[in-house]
């Protein structure tokens, strides 16, 4: 249930224009748009889709998806667009970095994608306008939520142990990761963490999962794990060790 459907190369956890589009591309900044591409790893290669645009403040934003998998709208980071090149990164348990060169018309990109496991070539084409589904900003992390939490979900008579780490990130906001203990300790980074009083919501776009819970007077978080339309009870207790 928790395992990502993506191929292992870029993601160790379990990563032709129509006439109307040409007009849109001329109006939009170079690099902006809906892009579809493949990483040349495996048979067949890994397909992906990107949404890249500038926000109201003029900063580049974007998301990454793998069609047919649980990886949807994972936010991009470190987006850099130049006259001849584009680069960006994403984190789905292992940080993957893409660096490529634009084609002469700016509608195509060819380059290399790499992470801790190695690198492979990729190419992509702009096929339309961008529709970026950016995540909401994370909240500050109250002290009582900080630390390592453990629990388990039960499905079909099987128990799957789950861990969750909650900490304050470099930006001063809450950060989290979910650990599938019984699936080799796979760890998935949270996309966003929002906290309102005693209520917590953790979204993990790398695996299309969401955890919602409430911190009780007993020091435990009572909540639910939702993934792929399935909701399972997941109550978390503070672990003795981080």
Largest sheet: 9 strands, antiparallel
- Helix- and strand-based class? mainly beta
CATH class of the largest domain: Mainly Beta
Shape call: elongated
Q: How big a fraction of the residues is strand?
A: over 45%
**Could you tell me the number of beta strands?**
19
Main β-sheet, spatial strand arrangement: 4-3-2-1-9-8-7-6-5
* Helical proportion, percent range: under 10%
Task: Quickly count the helices.
Answer: 1
CATH architecture of the largest domain: Beta Barrel
CATH fold description of the largest domain: Lipocalin
What is the helix/strand order?
Answer: HEEEEEEEEEEEEEEEEEEE
Tally of individual domains: 2
Oligomer: single chain
Q: Distance between termini?
A: 25 Å
Classified in CATH, the superfamily of the largest domain is: Quinohemoprotein amine dehydrogenase alpha subunit, domain 2
The value of Rg in angstroms is 19 Å
């Amino acid at each position: 249930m928790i395992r990502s459907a993506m191929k292992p190369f870029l993601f160790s956890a379990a990563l032709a224009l129509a006439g109307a589009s040409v007009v849109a591309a001329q109006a939009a900044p170079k690099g902006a748009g809906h892009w579809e591409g493949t990483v040349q790893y495996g048979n067949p290669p890994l397909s992906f889709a990107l949404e890249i645009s500038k926000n109201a403040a003029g900063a580049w934003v974007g998301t990454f998806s793998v069609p047919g998998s649980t990886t949807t709208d994972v936010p991009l980071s470190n987006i850099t667009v130049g006259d001849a090149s584009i680069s960006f990164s994403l984190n789905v348990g292992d940080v993957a970095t893409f660096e490529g060169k634009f084609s002469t018309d700016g509608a195509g990109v060819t380059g290399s994608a790499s992470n801790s496991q190695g690198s492979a070539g990729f190419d992509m084409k702009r096929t339309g306008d961008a529709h970026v589904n950016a995540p909401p900003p994370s909240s500050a992390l109250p002290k009582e939520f900080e630390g390592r939490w453990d629990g388990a979900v039960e499905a079909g008579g099987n128990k799957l142990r789950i861990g969750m780490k909650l900490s304050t990130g470099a930006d001063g906001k809450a950060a989290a990761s979910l650990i599938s203990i019984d699936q080799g300790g796979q760890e998935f980074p949270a996309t966003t963490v929002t906290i309102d009083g005693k209520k917590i919501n953790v979204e993990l776009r790398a695996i299309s999962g969401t955890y919602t819970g409430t911190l009780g007077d007993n020091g435990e978080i009572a909540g639910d794990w939702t993934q792929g339309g399935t909701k399972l009870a997941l109550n978390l207790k503070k672990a003795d060790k981080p």
